[in-house]
Specification:
Keywords: Membrane, Transmembrane, Transmembrane helix. With about 250 residues, this protein is an all-alpha fold. The chain has one domain. Helix content is about 80%, strand content about 0%. It contains twelve helices and no strands. The mean pLDDT is about 85.
């Protein structure tokens, strides 16, 4: 496993798409944080407060989209260029390759998300007025501390979810299209269906992930925001397990 992780790390560092998608993740996330700071001028009551949640909105709306695409590319790039045969010859146990890719990128995504969250906070504070900047004390703010662990956890869950989709489909465009449609449209549209729409709206995986990130309770008193993360995690693990099973059975 250790040698497989090392080889996968070498592949990751030598893949151009990994670098430009990482740069795009940072630019989009930090760009929105910078905008939040610039708008916190303190000229009126609306612009006086700098909220931690506002500074990382770009990370959730835009950065996580890039993260999902990057996760899929980690798994599908080899199939796109036909390198998977050599990989499986070197490591006959295919599940080891899949787990190594998942574990490696999971750690990277979690660490990158945590660092980006902190950068968003401090960049917004640096660009805000003195009065607005003083309203956000990063390590003492309850919302900021919650975001510091919730966003990395959400990143890890997304990596697992998208890894499963990528292993099942093996094709970048198809996997990206499915994940983005599911994330942005499918659950919202299906929620309008008569009778079953209410349940789809409540129990959709991305709906529950959103509730976890925003700390919003939407179903009943026994199903809080943290349960939303557990529920999404269950979906992610099932998809990842199914992806490994399909990987083992399909031709290389």
């Amino acid at each position: 496993m250790i040698n497989t992780i090392r080889s996968e790390w070498t592949k990751l560092l030598t893949t151009k798409s990994f670098w430009w998608t990482t740069a795009l993740f940072l630019v989009l996330s930090l760009g929105y944080a910078a905008l939040s700071g610039v708008l916190a001028t303190g000229d009126n009551l609306y612009s006086l407060w700098l909220f931690a949640g506002n500074t990382v909105t770009g990370l959730y709306l835009l950065g996580f989209v890039v993260l999902m695409i990057q996760t899929i590319m980690v798994f599908t790039t080899e199939f796109r260029f036909g390198y998977q045969t050599q990989t499986f010859l070197a490591t006959p146990k295919r599940w080891v390759v899949a787990v190594a890719k998942w574990l490696l990128y999971l750690v990277f995504a979690v660490v990158m998300t945590f660092i980006t969250v902190l950068l968003c906070f401090y960049l917004a504070k640096a660009l805000a007025s003195d009065a607005a900047s003083s309203t956000l004390v990063v390590w003492e703010d309850e919302q900021a501390r919650r975001i510091m662990w919730q966003y990395p956890v959400a990143a890890g869950l997304l990596v697992t979810f998208c890894s499963g989709i990528a292993l099942l489909l093996r094709q970048t465009a198809g996997a990206v299209a499915l994940v983005l449609m599911w994330h942005f449209a499918v659950e919202n549209l299906l929620s309008f269906l008569p009778r079953i729409g209410e349940y789809i709206g409540k129990y959709g995986p991305f709906t529950n992930l959103y509730n976890f990130i925003t700390d919003y309770q939407s179903i009943d008193p026994g199903w809080d925001a943290t349960m939303g993360a557990v529920y999404f995690g269950a979906w992610a693990l099932v998809l990842f397990a199914a992806g490994i099973i399909v990987l083992e059975k399909r031709d290389a």
